[in-house]
Amino acid sequence: MIHETTLRVRYKDTDAMGIAYYANYLIWFEVGRTEWMRALGPSYSELEKSGIFLPVIRATCEYKKAARYDDELTVITRIESIGLVRLTFHYEIRRSGQLVARGSTEHAFVNEKGRPAALRKMNPFLWHKLNQALEHDPAKE
């Protein structure tokens, strides 16, 4: 499953040159990931209420073009891989179809105590849905 989220670069997101500050791309990845999860169901808040958390354990971002104040950006989000206790998302940020940045975040499935948790055992329904989303990803075909 691929999900697209549209956002606009705000003035507060830029530096003195009007260029988006580099750390904001990770925030935009989070927006894309949150909306991807909401589209798949359950939302992040519902997942956390069930005792499953997804802390980021690694993040990468490759910058291709500068995003500027008032640009309309599209964050394209998909699952890159899923393991027993890990999940990796891939992102592309585009402006008018042109690649601005791409990256990934890797997450661990953990319980409310912060210990690694096997999603397949804790929530078999979500485990199945995530695997289906990965299998039906046109980018993987």
Characteristics of this structure?
alpha+beta, 5 strands, elongated
Number of strands: 5
Q: Tell me the count of domains.
A: 1
| Helix content class | 25-40%
Helix/strand structural class:
alpha+beta
In the sheet with the most strands, the strands line up as: 1-3-4-5-2
Unreliable spans are none
Number of helices: 4
**Whole-angstrom Rg:** 16 Å
SSE series: EHHEEEEHH
Task: Please provide a written account of the structure.
The structure is a single chain. The chain has a single domain, classed as Thiol Ester Dehydrase, Chain A. With 141 residues, it is α+β, with helices and mostly antiparallel strands. 28% of the residues lie in helices and 33% in strands. Strand 3 and strand 4 (86-95) form a beta hairpin. The protein contains 4 helices and 5 strands, in the order E-H-H-E-E-E-E-H-H. It is elongated and about 50 Å long. It has a 5-stranded antiparallel beta sheet.
Secondary-structure topology with pairs:
Elements: E1 2-8, H1 24-40, H2 44-49, E2 56-63, E3 72-82, E4 86-95, E5 98-108, H3 119-122, H4 124-135
Antiparallel strand pairs: 1-3, 2-5, 3-4, 4-5
Short summary:
With 141 residues, the chain is of the alpha+beta class.
